[in-house]
Design goal:
It is built from 14 helices and 19 strands. By secondary structure, the protein is α/β, with parallel strands linked by helices. The protein has 3 domains: about 150 residues, Alpha-D-Glucose-1,6-Bisphosphate, Chain A, domain 3 (3-Layer(aba) Sandwich), CATH 3.40.120; about 200 residues, 3-Layer(aba) Sandwich (Alpha-D-Glucose-1,6-Bisphosphate, Chain A, domain 3); about 90 residues, Alpha-D-phosphohexomutase, C-terminal domain (TATA-Binding Protein), CATH 3.30.310.50.
Length: about 450
């Protein structure tokens, strides 16, 4: 029975600490399962990795598993995640594998799988991989049919050229780029420089120890970038996470751009039908109303956004975290293309601070409470059954992803377990800051009471 099969995948692939959770045995089995899933002999799999110290070790283990089951491997080397999705599509591969733990610290690593369209594996596909691993139903081949390995370096140039063709930038801006010593270090600054912009780089030397800053592009970790943007009179600052599938912007005043407002800004510029998650601000809806657009909400996680984009033929999709999908280019989240899109908007419409200042503000709070993974189910059951009773004027409660409680005045709170870390996440929006604080305190005290 499926419920007896251990889960390997979270909301963004397999992740864990190297040596205890991400082991060579697991990596080999995932390689074998992936090769088995796509049919084995003669199939083609592209593999890339970020800058982590354990990546080549994990890549070799995965590759060994793939070859055992007859598929061929195309090695891309150290590349950002979006290039793996792009390469799977452009090289007509049967599967893409990215070895990364994204924003997690150095001691972590992970494995994420991509379809030939560049879209991440769905939950159903991941569950199938888990079944194959658990039951060891591998399609092993004899010695004469073992898969082959080739390296591909030319795909990087193709990716860069195709990115540049997606935008029309005159190159009038000064841009500071902080790649956090991650996988975007050798590509993101080059792409932006090729637009003609003057580029200043920070932490753009790949290093798996992440000496410049933590790979999570949070406000606390981007202080240096914010200072440099202001000190140099730059028009904008760009930051990526460890694998560059996300983009965070710093405005011309050296302040971090509000995640939701940035998402609203790019959604407004694209128009049409856009997909976002249940934790995104109402400001996105307000901006889309101005252009007669439509907002569709789904579960947190880029794969859920991607699925709904495909289902609804949407023109754009993204999460407030800075994970954006541009379906006309590729179905893989692309922080580098997202950076180019924002740079173009700033060049065409003026300072980012001014544009964001014109977007309606609703006090938003994002909080998290540490807990053991084993406690998550109990906490969410009690949240679902009891927490709505602690609020006045509840309009509705939905369970698209976690528990979202909406109030009649427009305020809302979303409680959901993290799929990648040992936290319960609280995201909320209040009509006033006082209301936001009240919602946060009620939610936090309720969860802490369970713990």
């Amino acid at each position: 029975m499926d419920e007896m099969i251990p889960k390997l995948f979270g909301t963004s692939g397999i992740r864990g600490k190297v040596g205890t959770e991400i082991t060579l045995d697991l990596a080999t089995k995932v390689g074998m399962a992936a090769s088995t899933y796509i049919g084995g002999k003669g199939r083609k799999i592209v593999i890339g990795y970020d800058s982590r110290t354990s990546n080549q070790m994990v890549e070799n283990a995965i590759t060994a598993g793939i070859l055992q089951c007859g598929s061929n491997v195309i090695r891309l080397g150290m590349v950002p995640t979006p290039l793996v999705g792009y390469a799977a599509m452009k090289l007509k591969a049967d599967l893409g594998i990215m070895i990364t733990a994204s924003h997690n610290p150095s001691q972590y690593n992970g494995i994420k799988l991509w379809n030939p369209t560049g879209m991440a594996y769905t939950q159903d596909q991941e569950r199938t991989i888990e079944r194959i691993v658990h039951k060891k139903n591998f399609l092993k081949v004899e010695w004469e049919n073992i898969g082959k390995i080739e390296n591909n370096e030319s795909i990087v140039s193709e990716y860069i050229n195709d990115l540049l063709n997606e935008v029309d930038i005159k190159g009038n801006l000064k841009v500071v780029v902080d790649c956090g010593n991650g996988a975007g270090s050798l590509i993101s600054p080059v792409v932006i420089r090729k637009t003609g912009c003057h580029v200043i780089t920070l932490n753009c030397q790949p290093d798996g120890f992440f000496p410049g800053r933590n790979p999570e592009p949070s406000e606390a970790n981007l202080r240096e970038l914010m200072k440099v943007v202001k000190a140099t009179g730059a028009d904008i600052g760009i930051a990526h996470d460890g694998d560059a599938d996300r983009m965070i912007a710093i405005d011309n005043n050296g302040k971090m751009a509000d995640f939701d407002k940035l998402l609203a800004l790019v959604s407004h510029s694209i128009g049409g039908k856009i997909v976002t998650t249940v934790d995104a601000s109402f400001s996105v809806d307000k901006c889309m109303e101005d252009v007669g657009g439509e907002v569709i909400r789904t579960k947190v996680g880029d794969v859920h956004v991607a699925e709904v984009i495909v289902e609804t033929n949407a023109s754009f999709g993204g999460e407030p975290s800075g994970t954006w999908l541009h379906p006309d280019f590729c179905m893989c989240p692309d922080g580098i293309l997202s950076a180019l899109k924002i740079i173009q908007i700033v060049e065409e419409k003026g300072p980012l601070s001014k544009q964001l200042g014109e977007i309606p503000s609703y006090p938003t709070v994002r909080d998290k409470i540490e807990c053991e993974d084993i406690q998550k189910t109990l906490i969410m059951e009690k949240v679902k059954e009891e927490l709505p009773e602690y609020f006045d004027n509840v309009k509705d409660v939905n369970f698209i992803d976690g528990v979202r409680i909406s109030m009649k005045d427009g305020s809302w709170v979303l409680i959901r377990p993290s799929g990648t870390e040992s936290y319960i996440r609280i995201t909320l929006e209040g009509k006033t800051m006082e209301k936001a604080r009240e919602i946060r305190n009620i939610s936090r005290e309720f969860i802490e009471g369970i713990l």
